[in-house]
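Friendly challenge for the regulars: who can give me the structure tokens for this chain first? No prize, just bragging rights.
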Amino acid sequence: TPGTIVATGTDVTVSDTITITSATTPAVTVTSGAVTNTFTSGVATLTKYVRNVTTPMVGTGAPYGYGGNNYYLGGITAKPGEVLEYALVATNTSSTGSVSAAVMTDALPTSYVTFRSGVYSGSTDVTYFVVGSPSASYLTAAADADAANYAAPTLTVNVGTGATNAAGGTIPASTSLLVLYQVTINP
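First reply, four minutes later:
Bragging rights claimed.
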């Protein structure tokens, strides 16, 4: 029955009875018993952390650690000219369902900050990492063949398995993804 799913992470169960009719002998049919399919959706959460690169400090909230650095939910301050690094963490909290068409976006307050380019490996602008995998991907913020694009004021990173420069991919169940980028505080 058609309807609307109103709660994320809800299982959708479809029950069908299938009838097959012979193309050559229309009077011959076979009807199945009930066929039940359950589709479980993933549940994505997005958490934004920050650290002051120029003047390291301890912020508030439980820290998120990556690459020997701690990122915080809040309590980080910065002066003009200092660099902040943001960590966007997307987690599929479902133990069975995937999240599809996954895209992480962040709107930068360009009156106060300037997006930094060329700060990561190979003079790239964004680091993308599947938590638990052995290596990171380094992306440019230009509208090109990789999965990141910065068109002020919005940074967009298509994430997940199968992500391209045009579409988000799939985040498997119980998987977290990390996107890092930096800004400089304007004078």
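The mean pLDDT is 89. DSSP finds no helices and 14 strands in the chain. Your move, everyone else.
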